[in-house]
Write a structure and sequence with these properties.
alpha+beta, six-stranded antiparallel β-barrel, rod-shaped, 12 strands, 333 residues
């Protein structure tokens, strides 16, 4: 009809949904059930056998122990390695500390050994000093050299000692070492003194040659120069290499102290004496300890005189042979 809405046909109903599973799923499910059943039967059989024989318990126990050992042994080894490493580190720290302490102790002992060796060297030098033969007219006093001016650049070879005029180092006091005469005190303060060496040009020492006993005067010629022996007669039998000792005739030095050694000698062309050069015996540059010879004021006893030689001549008169000398005669009768 015109003016009327067209009729709408009803919608068709949706078809029914059918759940259809593939055949393979049922097959797999059946296989799973069968497998589970077989496994269950297998475990039941094992359980039954184990209840009757105990084989499964032993097997599982051994397997468990082996597995436990396989797991625990590496852990124990790792623990032992870590413990050893830690102990080694601790021991290393202790060893390092002990090493430091021992090194410090070694240094202290080395210092002590050096000090003792220096003391022993000083003791040997002092013992050598004490061997210097002296008579009762002189008293030895030990002294130490504090400083010195020695060498070709010095105008006056001198050294300072730790004694003064209040402690036995008066001006003019002789100074000796174990090797021989070294010099004499020039100036003295209360507790220190300045001494000059025997090589000083103002030095004059009365000497004897040790073998021939020829007298002479030993004179200094200055720093680093040989000494000269003056006023020794050409007829002397002295030879190079012979020692010169103090004669004591000048009253300044004790008798018999070694002074120098003759190095060369020849007749002088301008005088009647020999030209003799000598070198000092004492080490002038490496001496540390010396002896001062202080006079005691005691006069040295004279040497015993030799008996007078027996007179040989014509026979004595008869009146001199009588024991009693002739008396005065009375007047003649």
């Amino acid at each position: 009809m015109p003016g009327c809405l067209p009729a709408v046909a009803p919608a068709p109903c949706p078809p029914a949904i059918l759940l259809v599973l593939p055949w393979g799923v049922f097959v797999n499910f059946r296989h799973a059930l069968i497998t589970a059943g077989l496994v269950l039967v297998f475990f039941l059989a094992l359980y039954t056998v184990n209840r009757t024989t105990g084989v499964l318990d032993r097997v599982t126990t051994n397997i468990g122990l082996e597995v436990t050992g396989v797991v625990i042994n590496p852990v124990r080894q790792l623990e032992s390695a870590i413990a050893d490493l830690w102990n080694s580190y601790v021991d290393l720290v202790h060893v390092r500390e002990e090493n430091r302490v021992l090194q410090q102790r070694i240094q202290e002992l080395e210092a002590q050994v050096l000090a003792q060796s220096e003391d022993m060297a000083e003791l040997r030098r002092l013992r050598e000093l004490l061997k210097m033969p002296l008579d009762v007219s002189w008293t030895p006093l030990g002294a130490r050299i504090l400083a010195g001016r020695i060498g070709p650049s010095s105008q006056l070879e001198s050294f300072t000692i730790n004694r003064g005029y209040t402690t036995g180092a008066a001006p003019g006091t002789p100074i000796v070492t174990n090797q021989g005469l070294l010099g004499r005190v020039l100036r003295a303060a209360p507790h220190t003194a300045t001494a000059i060496l025997l090589t000083n040009p103002t030095s004059r020492i009365a000497i004897f040659t040790q073998k021939s006993r020829t007298p002479g005067i030993l004179t200094g010629m200055g720093p680093s120069r040989p000494m000269e022996v003056r006023y020794m007669d050409k007829g002397t039998t002295t030879e190079p290499g012979e020692l010169l000792v103090t004669s004591g005739l000048d009253g300044k030095y004790p008798k018999g102290i070694p002074v120098a050694r003759i190095t060369s000698m020849q007749p002088s062309s301008s005088s009647e004496f020999m030209t003799i050069l000598a070198e000092p015996l004492a080490d002038l540059r490496h001496t540390e300890e010396v002896l001062l010879l202080e006079p005691t004021g005691i006069v040295r006893p004279p040497e015993p005189a030799t008996p007078a030689p027996e007179f040989v001549g014509p026979p004595l008169p008869d009146f001199l042979k009588r024991d009693d000398p002739p008396g005065p005669r009375g007047p003649a009768r």
